[in-house]
Amino acid sequence: MSRQVELGPDDGTLTLRTGVTGRAARTGHRLTIGFERWRAVVVIDDAPASVTLTVDVESLQVLSGEGGLTPMTAPERLVARTNALKSLGSSRHPEIVFTADQVTPLDDGYRLVGELAIGGTTRKHTVDVDSDDAVVRGESPVVQTDFGVKPYSLMMGALKVADEVVVALEATLPR
């Protein structure tokens, strides 16, 4: 008999980490972005059988910016948030969805194989997660341009957000 386990912001964090590139990369900030509204649904038979993660893009918040010539200020975080929402086309595509219909056990977790939909483009995607009885953790690189997302840039491209970002999830499993 199947059962569902739901995870969300009360159970953990979903973050995105960016890098910087270009001739002026040392002047830019590597961002840590969090999402305040997301939901993961895991269908379990004897073991996890499928996973769906839905993220509300508008809930994106810039948590911090490392590096750069000066520390990142609150107004700069707001500008970075606005730029990220514009790059993701949040008004037209308000959700990011990962649906894994193949879940394979690994030594210390699971391999999730499915589809990732960002900005109206869907691609096959694989994520490995570590899991024990208490916590699930996973990280996955995502290449923005694979989904039609143009990484933000300024100074005629001398400073730009790196094309590959890393999405990370860490959540406490319900008892």
TrEMBL record:
SMART domains: YceI. Residues 4-174 form the Lipid/polyisoprenoid-binding YceI-like domain. It comes from the Bacteria. Pfam families: YceI. Belongs to the UPF0312 family. This is YceI family protein. It comes from Gordonia hydrophobica.
